[in-house]
Specification:
Layout (H helix, E strand, L loop, with lengths): L7 E5 L3 H13 L3 E6 L2 H5 L7 E5 L1 E2 L2 E2 L1 H10 L3 E5 L14 E4 L4 H8 L2 H4 L13 H16 L2 H18 L9 H20 L2
Parallel strand pairs: 1-2, 1-3, 3-6, 6-7
Antiparallel strand pairs: 4-5
Helix pairs in contact: 6-7, 6-8, 7-8
Protein name: Response regulator
Organism: Mesorhizobium robiniae
Length: 198
């Protein structure tokens, strides 16, 4: 089981039994569970601090899409978790995984945190833009999964951005900002990851 210590995960689910199961599963990995929220209004109170999210599509007849839009704007990875087959996900949100409620917690975890993400071999599931600011939540989450320490992870992101400023003239054409920064982060973690833990 991977270590999610300190990662803020928003759970938006109106079935309290299911919400409790998800909260226990992620809480046992050390995640800070936000919610569970059963309404769009409750969920909106947590969008600024969430670093990942599980979203029930249908909240007592209301759609969760405004929450997804806000998370997407911030570059926060999320998955849809639905029991309804007839709900159409808007085109702008179809990049996110859409799991059935029959899926187990491991499947949700894998959709939210793909194996390549924790190894920094690839990028998280949300690919929004080349704006560095919008990529910060994903960089911080990837760093936390890599180092497992909140302070060290933030230092890793800082070092990554410092090195990126120094190497901006050597950036290869055609490489997205996200891939470029993840490559720099891998290099910094290899060369000085241990020192960042102290």
């Amino acid at each position: 089981m991977r270590d999610l210590r300190g990662v803020h995960i928003l759970i938006v689910e109106d079935d309290w039994v299911l919400a409790g199961d998800l909260a226990r599963y992620f809480g046992n990995m050390g995640a800070v569970v936000l919610g569970p929220a059963a309404t769009v209004e409750q969920a909106s109170a947590h969008t600024e601090t969430a670093e990942a999210a599980i979203l029930d599509v249908n909240l007592n007849g209301r759609r969760v899409f405004p929450i997804a839009d806000e998370l997407m704007r911030r570059g926060v990875p999320f998955v849809f978790f639905s029991g309804d087959e007839d709900i159409v996900i808007p085109e702008r949100l179809r990049h996110a995984s859409n799991l059935r409620k029959s899926s187990d917690s491991h499947a949700i975890f894998d959709a939210l945190f793909p194996p390549e993400m924790s190894a920094l071999a690839g990028s998280p599931p949300v690919n929004l833009s080349d704006n560095v600011f919008s990529l910060l939540p994903k960089l911080r989450l990837a760093a936390r999964l890599l180092l497992g320490d909140v302070g060290a992870s933030d230092r890793l992101v800082e070092r990554t951005l410092e090195r990126a400023i120094g190497e901006i003239d050597r950036r290869r054409a055609g490489v997205s900002t996200e891939d470029w920064l993840n490559g720099i982060m891998r290099s910094v973690a290899r060369s000085s990851g241990t020192s960042l833990l102290h």
